[in-house]
Write a structure and sequence with these properties.
Length: 144
């Protein structure tokens, strides 16, 4: 499993950021490699489930995901199954007038990409994608 941890400080309230990020279809606006979200449904726990298509290393992967753990307004974990198995945890902490957003993803390399060199390259690409995701989120939340 590969693990990526990233943080960003955003000049916006926790609630605004949390309410945006919890809904998978919103992430299409800030996550360049996330291509499609379909069949989005809100769950009784306040999270969502959805089908997704993700582009990695020029290939498209499909699957389903849903929020499996949640403390509303504080953190949640979105687990994916399908071509890529992952756990994505978002954490939101108010610090003065800002919010510290933490993004942690643990994922396995799809079998089709499985070799040492590919794992290193894909790991670096996905690390860059996580940075872009958080920068895009920061810009969107601070502009609106």
């Amino acid at each position: 499993m590969i693990r990526i941890d990233k943080e960003v400080m955003i000049n916006a309230p926790v609630g605004k950021i949390y309410n945006f990020v919890i809904k998978p279809s919103n992430l299409l606006q800030v996550w360049p490699s996330l291509m499609v979200i379909r069949n989005e449904q809100q769950l009784p726990n306040g999270g969502y489930r959805a089908n997704w298509i993700y582009k990695m290393d020029g290939l498209y992967f499909r699957g389903k995901g849903e929020v499996i753990d949640i403390v509303s307004g504080v953190w949640f974990t979105f687990q994916t199954k399908g071509s890529i198995k992952s756990k994505i945890t978002w954490t939101f902490r108010a610090i003065d007038d800002q919010t510290r957003v933490t993004f942690t993803i643990e994922y396995g390399i799809p079998f089709i990409l499985l070799d040492w060199l590919t794992e290193v390259v894909v790991g670096k690409i996905n690390d860059q994608q996580a940075t872009i995701l958080l920068v895009n989120l920061q810009v969107m939340m601070e502009e609106n």
